[in-house]
């Protein structure tokens, strides 16, 4: 009978940012790797695993001699390059395409430097795993995926992990120990492994060893203990190994004895460290903005290059922006568990990357404007001409959405209307040349109150897929009459009330909720939309023991009360209600808008938080509700009452009274109990803290997110349009003032579209070599779909997409047509 095998896997989990900043973290990567290399030279049988392309890149740049030694050990097989990602990201919060780019970036780097791709993913320490990860991993060529959290996950050892579309990877969670250990204790782990191995139906298992958290790795004592233990246990085969060898051994056993040797599982591997879904909102919110803006800009630039610019352009600033997105998705940055000064640096990085991305977006829209007819009418006498504004829809589907347009209608104030600027006459000319319904709204600048030379208006734009609309905004002494809106105008029928014919919203001082009716029926039950502050004495990671009594985080400190209500806008396009809620010394301002004919409630929120050891939540009572469906990376998941949980761009509450939908541009943490959905806005915890402390302890320590943060959300029916509304909220149409000039393209039009509607476009981008166009999709429908991309007048049949599957195609221009080929996620 063959011996069973213990695979010894030397590791050194290194957080590039955590209790230190990125400079220390990256340099520790050099120190750790050099230390391990010296040990490998001293012990010729020892092996080591290392992932994260960002660490290798830093070593290659800063210590090339260390990198050369690593490459030599990679060739011999003693240094196992694992993971395939740029860093070890959080595995619940990033967008699906962000995960795809991790593998594009990481795998291409490893292929270029070591001549092979990684086939085993490695998440030593990320805090739970989304249900769609198998689809993402399989699309990237990953066959096995090793991870250690959550500790209470139902499977340890190897198991077949299936995605919603049927993709399969071999998951592995160590049966004994975690991703490393202490200087002592390895002998005990080996004893436990031997005992466990004797009870298993399969013949291979792993023991990870090495110092961890700030690098470190195997020590001489570890290797001496291994030699002693191996000599004492000839009944078991003990090998220095790596993750590729380990996973290959599991596959070999399955091939010999059948797949059923390992259990099968479909779903998410959660939960742990639940506080991380909402920690450090001041970082999460700009991170999300960069992620969405980069996708929007890249997609817009790619289709414009393909249709107008000819040669594909890689846009180096966007590559740098993706590096910022990927690095900052690290599982101690995005989850909010690092120190304050580290966040000062990472927020600075995010801001710089966003600026560079916006430069590309500016150039892209200007390039489009050169081709589009953005001309304005001739001036009358000494009056100024109008300003040209171009609105661009970055989505592969048509969008009808409220937009705001602003420009200077002269170069000096129009003195005639001093102290009565709201009487200044204007016209907004639509793409068809007619006057568009438009509503004057407040400008942001308060310079020279009572004197206007800038004008800001709201209108509802109808934008074709990947399409544009050119507007002219002008001061006109004798404007044409504004046409009546197509549907009932937004109104403010009474103080504290707005109504667009679909929704009626009312708020009054002293109440604890905002009443919202849809078609005369309560959209939210009970007191309506409200907020609460709950006790949250826990540190960055939240309550870490998964105590069933604490996972809800509903120990009420205070219910928020409406203090003041004002009607800000009422006109033909929209009505807006401003509501201030207060609790303690904190305020929450909600600017609630209803647009003509729009079946959604749009809300801009501004929280001024002055609390400690507290968590602030939006509260949305939903009558008759029993479960909630969450958008998560790679799929959707249905959950009942499971405490604080991670979510993505939207949540749909299933209710016997009619489904309800919530979407935001920033929030990730939710709590659903039958009858109510809660969304966590912010946590006033402490940076990188594990201890449970109430608000009166260590008051010298800074409270996370104490100050002002702002975000947007919407409320809508929970129908098939919710996901589309969420996409547009995340990536709204671009509005840009442009040079007025005639062009060979009409004042409105489309560059393309993607069909059918239930196939989500994940990426439209240049290939990594800059020569071709890459299209990546995921079928979110329930059956196979034939995917068609239309570019201009040309319809391109891309191929079939099975439900849930992530598919990538590469398109090469051949004269007037396009050649289509399947590609992997590394294109």
Describe the SSE topology.
Blueprint: E1 5-10, H1 22-42, E2 48-50, H2 53-62, H3 64-76, E3 79-81, H4 96-114, E4 120-123, H5 133-139, E5 144-147, E6 157-162, E7 168-173, H6 186-197, E8 204-209, H7 220-232, E9 237-240, H8 243-257, E10 264-266, H9 281-309, H10 316-328, H11 340-371, E11 387-392, E12 399-408, E13 426-429, E14 439-440, E15 454-463, E16 467-475, E17 491-494, E18 497-499, E19 503-506, E20 515-518, E21 521-522, E22 530-535, E23 556-559, E24 561-570, E25 574-583, E26 586-595, E27 601-609, E28 614-621, E29 625-632, E30 635-639, E31 644-646, E32 650-655, E33 660-664, E34 669-673, E35 676-684, E36 707-717, H12 722-730, E37 734-738, E38 748-750, E39 752-755, E40 759-766, E41 773-779, E42 785-791, E43 794-801, E44 806-814, E45 817-823
Parallel strand pairs: 1-8, 1-9, 2-3, 4-5, 5-7, 6-10
Antiparallel strand pairs: 6-7, 11-16, 11-37, 12-15, 13-16, 14-15, 16-38, 17-18, 18-19, 19-20, 20-21, 22-23, 22-28, 24-25, 25-26, 26-27, 27-36, 28-35, 29-30, 29-32, 31-34, 32-33, 33-36, 34-35, 39-42, 40-41, 41-44, 42-43, 44-45
Helix pairs in contact: 1-2, 2-3, 4-10, 9-10, 9-11, 10-11
């Amino acid at each position: 009978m063959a011996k069973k095998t213990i695979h010894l896997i030397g590791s050194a989990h290194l957080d590039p940012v955590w209790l230190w900043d990125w400079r220390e973290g990256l340099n520790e990567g050099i120190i750790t790797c050099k230390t391990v290399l010296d040990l490998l030279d001293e012990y010729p049988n020892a092996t080591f695993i290392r992932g994260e392309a960002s660490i290798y890149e830093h070593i290659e740049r800063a210590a090339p001699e260390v990198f050369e030694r690593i490459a030599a050990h990679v060739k011999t097989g003693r240094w196992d390059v694992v993971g395939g990602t740029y860093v070890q990201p959080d595995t619940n919060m990033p967008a699906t395409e962000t995960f795809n780019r991790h593998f594009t970036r990481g795998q291409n780097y490893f292929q270029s430097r070591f001549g092979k791709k990684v086939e085993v993913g490695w998440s030593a320490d990320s805090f739970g795993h989304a249900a769609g990860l198998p689809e993402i991993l399989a699309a990237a060529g990953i066959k096995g995926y090793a991870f250690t959290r959550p500790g209470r996950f139902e499977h340890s050892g190897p198991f077949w992990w299936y995605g919603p579309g049927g993709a399969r990877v071999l998951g592995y969670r160590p049966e004994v120990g975690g991703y490393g250990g202490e200087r002592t204790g390895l002998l005990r782990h080996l004893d436990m492994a031997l005992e466990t191995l004797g009870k298993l139906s399969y013949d291979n298992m792993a023991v990870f060893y090495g110092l961890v958290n700030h690098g470190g790795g195997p020590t001489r004592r570890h290797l001496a203990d291994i030699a002693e233990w191996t000599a004492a246990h000839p009944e078991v085969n003990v090998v220095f190994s790596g993750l590729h060898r380990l996973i290959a051994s599991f596959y070999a056993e399955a091939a010999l004895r059948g797949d059923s040797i390992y259990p099968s599982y479909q779903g998410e591997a959660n939960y742990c460290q639940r506080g991380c879904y909402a920690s450090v909102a001041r970082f999460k919110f700009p991170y999300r903005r960069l992620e969405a803006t980069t996708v929007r800009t890249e997609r817009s630039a790619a289709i414009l290059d393909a249709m107008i610019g000819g040669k594909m352009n890689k846009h180096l600033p966007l590559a740098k922006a993706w590096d910022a997105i990927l690095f900052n998705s690290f599982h101690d940055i995005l989850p909010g568990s690092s120190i304050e000064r580290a966040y000062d640096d990472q927020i600075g990085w995010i801001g710089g990357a966003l600026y560079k991305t916006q430069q590309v977006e500016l150039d892209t829209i200007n390039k489009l404007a050169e081709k589009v007819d953005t001309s304005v009418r001739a001036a009358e006498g000494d009056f100024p001409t109008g300003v040209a504004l171009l609105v661009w829809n970055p989505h592969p589907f048509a969008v009808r959405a409220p937009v705001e347009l602003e420009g200077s209608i002269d170069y000096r104030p129009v003195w005639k209307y001093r102290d009565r600027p709201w009487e200044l006459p204007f016209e907004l000319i639509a793409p068809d040349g007619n006057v568009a319904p438009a509503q004057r709204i407040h400008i942001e600048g308060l310079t020279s109150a009572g004197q206007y030379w800038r004008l800001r208006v709201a209108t509802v734009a109808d934008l074709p897929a990947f399409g544009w609309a050119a507007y002219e905004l002008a001061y006109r002494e004798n404007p044409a009459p504004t046409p009546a809106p197509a549907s009932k105008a937004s109104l403010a029928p009474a103080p504290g009330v707005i109504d667009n014919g679909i929704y009626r919203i009312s708020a009054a001082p002293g109440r604890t909720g905002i009443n919202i009716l849809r078609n005369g029926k309560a959209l939210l039950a009970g007191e309506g939309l409200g907020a609460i502050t709950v006790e949250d004495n826990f540190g960055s990671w939240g309550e870490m023991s998964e105590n069933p009594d604490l996972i809800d985080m509903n120990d009420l400190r205070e219910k928020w009360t409406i203090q003041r209500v004002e009607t800000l806008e009422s006109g033909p396009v929209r009505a807006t209600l401003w509501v201030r809620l207060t609790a303690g010394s904190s305020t929450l301002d909600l600017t609630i808008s209803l647009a003509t004919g729009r079946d959604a409630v749009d809300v801009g929120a501004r929280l001024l938080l002055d609390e400690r050891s507290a968590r602030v939540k939006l509260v949305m009572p939903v009558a008759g509700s029993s479960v909630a469906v969450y958008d998560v990376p790679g799929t959707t998941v249905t959950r009942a009452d499971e405490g604080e949980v991670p979510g993505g761009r939207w949540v749909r509450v299933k209710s016997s009274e009619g489904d309800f939908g919530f979407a935001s541009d920033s929030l990730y943490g939710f709590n659903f109990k039958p009858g109510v959905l809660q969304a966590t806005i912010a946590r006033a915890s402490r940076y990188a803290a594990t201890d449970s402390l109430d608000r009166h302890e260590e008051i010298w320590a800074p409270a996370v997110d104490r100050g002002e943060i702002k975000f947007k959300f919407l409320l809508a029916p929970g129908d098939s349009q919710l996901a589309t509304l969420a996409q547009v909220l995340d990536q709204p149409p671009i509005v840009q003032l442009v040079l007025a000039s005639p062009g060979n393209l009409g004042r409105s039009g489309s560059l393309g579209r993607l069909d059918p509607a239930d196939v989500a476009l994940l990426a439209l981008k240049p290939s990594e070599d800059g020569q071709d166009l890459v299209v990546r999709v995921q079928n979110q429908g329930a059956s196979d779909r034939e995917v068609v991309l239309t570019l201009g007048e040309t319809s391109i049949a891309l191929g079939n997409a099975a439900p849930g599957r992530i598919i990538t195609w590469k398109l090469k221009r051949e004269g007037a047509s396009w050649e289509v080929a399947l590609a992997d996620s590394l294109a």
